[in-house]
Amino acid sequence: MAGRPQGLGPFLDALGERLDALDARELRAAVLAHAEQLEPRERAPLLARFAAGRPAEVAAPGLLADVEAFTDRLCGGAYFDDWGWDDDLHEERAWGDESWVGEMDALFARASEAFLAGDLELAADAYGALLEALTLDGEVGAFSGPGTPEVMVATDLGEAKARALRARFETTPAPYCAALLDDQMEVLAHVGPRVGLKEIIDALPGALDGLAPFLDDWVALLTPPSDARRRALAVEAVLRRDGVDGLATLARAHGLQSPELFEAWVGALEGEAAARACREALDTIAPCGEPRARIAERLAATGEEVEGRREAWRAAPTMTRLRALAAALPGGDGALAIEADRLDAGADVPGGPAAALLALDGRADAVMALLETAPPLGWSGREHPGPVAVAFALLLALEAPTDLERRAPHVAQQLSRLDLDPPWLADRAWLWADPDDDDGRPDAGEPPALSVLLTERARGVTAPASRRAAWLELATAAVTARVGAIVEAKRRHSYERAAGLLVACAEARGLALDPASAGALVREIRQRYPRHVAFRSALDAATRRSPLLPSPPARR
User: Fold this and answer.
1) pTM for the full model?
2) At what angle do helices 290-301 and 319-328 cross, to 10 degrees?
3) Were both Cys, which of 239, 315, 324, 482 would link to 293 (CB 3.0–4.6 Å)?
4) How much is the average pLDDT of 389-402?
């Protein structure tokens, strides 16, 4: 994915360096080559750029009056007709006159002209009013269109914010500048991307006059940081003013209340210095939480693999961190026993990761105990042990066979879903992602997938056939309860997944017990819901895809 565009200042500096390296002939050839690629509508504006004696561009007169008239129309609902369903989007949205998009982009372009012409007072007022108008998106009755206003406008809102703040900086007396910028940033915090001091500096070529005294006021205003926005700005300002040593001082002074400051400090270090800072941070901050977990993962990256992975798991237990810990620990039975024992002592671990931990330590009875007391719904969250517990029970019943994709494809599907751990969901919906979407699966070089770890562990569990059958019965009872809760609540979006889960249990019963047991389970559930045609259809489709089950009855 491409990063954000450069600010105008660095872009012009880089372009100037490249132009300086060209002679007149090379420069002419480069301009002509660029002109060849232009669309027809772009040719006349380029020629105008090279017109002899071209005057400096200035914003058209009446810009602020036009901006005010536009925002008045927005606030008055001139562009909004109604809120209703969109068949193309499959959701509700605002309907109305979408001409506001072109009007707003045109006003942003005029504000840009004022900014580049040096009329910073005008630019600050125009940009500020237009950007603040975008905060009306939270109120029904202002904007219309199939997307959010930020998506619909063509203007780069990150650059617009940076220019608005740069213009305010340049036109505000020094004693008031820091407070005014902080207020403006707070108002526009949810408009466009985050803009910090770097983007403000890069909005124009050349140095920013008055930066050093401003930094002193800025750091004093932002510390101690009261929220995530100010924390990020404080880190940026201190690093620019005082370097990494200043960041260490900031973390030691306020890191107990804001552990992310320690995280920023260790992130700016390498090697043994980073390891020492990680240990200091872990000795200082609270024993749980995502910042602590990320600092521990940074410690692991410095070479302290086992210590770092264990601390990360304990601070914020997730499936990803459990996989990493299991990969870091020495092999053999009991490698995770210490962490599993902590569950008995009351360690706070969500149900899904807890079930996976107990399974990887071979404690099948404890896994099934979690499943017995879990509710029938809520399997898509990491608090529920069901997905892991059922998959492990199926593996134990089958004694972790190979070639599941051919022999028991629905069992294989349940296992594959355990490997879907999209990082953008922060481990919160790690089960029911699209099984055909490889984006969520662990990449090469990462710790082994959970399905692989569970399969290997299941092969090492010693238990008689009667015990394995009992675990399978517990899993089947949990699955049928889940199917019942879904069908009786008419959760149609879950019918296909529920049917696949039930057929997976049937496949395991057919392989571990006898084929008749598999068909009997499916028939029993199918007959239980004679009026739920949609669910029976999903169950029939899943049954047809299984080589172990008899074909469902033909529709009458």
Assistant:
1) 0.81
2) 30
3) 315
4) 91
